[in-house]
Amino acid sequence: MILKDFVQGIEGCWAMAQAEDFDNVGLLCGNPEREVTGVLVCHDALETVVDEAVAKGANVIICFHPIIFSGLKKLTGKTYVERAVMKAIENKIAIYAVHTALDNDYFGVNYRICEALGLKDQKVLMPKRNNLLQLAVYVPGSHLEAVREALFSAGAGRIGFYDECGFSVTGEGTFRPLEGSSPFLGRQDERTAAEEVMLTVVFEAYRQNSVVAAMKQAHPYEEVAYQVVRLENDHAYSGLGRYGELPEPMAEQDFLAFVKSVFGLAVIRHSGQEGRMIRRVGVLGGSGASGIAAAKSVGCEAYLTGDLKYHDFFQAEGRMLLCDIGHFESERFVVEQMFEVLSEKFTNFAVLKSEVNTNPVNYFI
User: Fold this and answer.
1) In whole angstroms, what is the distance from residue 39 CA to residue 340 CA?
2) Are 264 and 244 in contact (CB under 8 A)?
3) Which of 21, 128, 156, 294: disulfide with 239, CB 3.0–4.6 Å?
């Protein structure tokens, strides 16, 4: 398999278009025409990880965090980023990052955290907004099924755990073909009335080009009458963070000990304990101060994340136990998660897990 085909396969696992706008996901370096000989999955594609890939004969690194996040103006080896990228290029190793595409995935980073905690009735904490579009197209009845099938095949009509969702209503459409037209129905300069079906489907915004192209390809009309509108609905199956319910309520002290055990932590930074029982828990792997308000709004008694600052802890306001378990620690399941998905999808070459600990934060206990 060559790299560009492998990349296409990865993007069938996680929708890169669902990554946050600030992010830098996808193929960061590498020749798309080079054959893939092996894949190494890691958290951070540091120089030591590139050395590991060389030693293990892997010429593709799939990392969670993008090693290239902001623009590189030169490659001289002065920074850890430059050294890693230079070594990858020198050894003909490609680097591909998934980051917030996996964060936003319904079965992504935060799903795995919730599963580790045993949370039930899970929901997305901060659903993506302005992410859903609706297409309405007018189709002659003779071609309704062909157009509908084309739309479904392009990914339209998927709502949560349902697909092939659509709505249709029959009515009368009128049009008059003008000079230069080649109408499917009617004659030039004569108004034509035809029985048509208005077919509507919902789809994610990043699919718009492929959905509209598929619709036009299957539609018999020379000029297709359709409209695309943006919906205000939240996308309940895509977004950052997650929350759910513990099987049984836990006292705050017991909950902290439980979290410490699940994540293998040396320490937890947390807000003051209020003597409440913990039942609903919110999580956001990585830097998650942005989710504190959302966690409070859905009634979480505890919220787990990383990188909380001094003033972030004041936002608990006595209503919620804020727990900073560490950035790397909150994402501790991502390598295993990516490894499982890629190993199942790609069986014609080795997929390996990195053994290098790239966590830059250490604790003196």
Assistant:
1) 13
2) no
3) 128
Containing 306, the helix (H) or strand (E) segment is strand 302-306
The encoded tokens of residue 17 equal 């278009």
Token pair recorded at residue 44: 């951070």
pLDDT in tens, the chain (365 residues): 999 999 999 988 999 999 999 999 999 999 999 999 999 999 999 999 999 999 999 999 999 999 999 889 999 999 999 999 999 999 999 999 999 999 999 999 999 999 999 999 999 999 998 899 999 999 999 999 999 999 999 999 998 899 999 999 999 989 898 988 888 888 888 898 989 999 999 999 999 999 999 999 999 999 999 999 999 999 999 999 999 999 999 999 999 999 999 999 999 999 999 999 999 999 999 999 999 999 999 999 999 999 999 999 999 999 999 999 999 999 999 999 999 999 999 988 889 999 999 999 999 88
**Separation CA 262–CA 247 (nearest Å):** 15
Residues 6+ apart with CB under 8 A from 168: 144, 148, 197, 198, 199, 200
The answer to whether 88 touches 60, Cβ cutoff 8 Å, is no
- Residue at 337: amino acid letter: Q
Cα 167 to its chain centre, rounded Å, is 27
286: closest CA among 81, 128, 98, 119? 98
Residue bearing tokens 């014609």: 348
Q: Does the pTM exceed 0.85? A: yes
Task: Report the C-alpha gap between 206 and 356 in whole angstroms.
Answer: 35
Secondary element (H or E) of residue 321: strand 321-324
Asked whether the CA dihedral 39, 331, 83, 18 is positive or negative, the reply is positive
Is 63 within 8 Å of 97 (Cβ atoms)? yes
Taking a C-beta distance cutoff of 8 angstroms, is the pair 102, 64 a contact? yes
Contact 306, 330 (CB under 8 A): yes
The whole-angstrom separation of Cα 224 and Cα 146 is 14
For residues 96 and 338, give the distance between their C-alpha atoms in angstroms, rounded to a whole number: 12
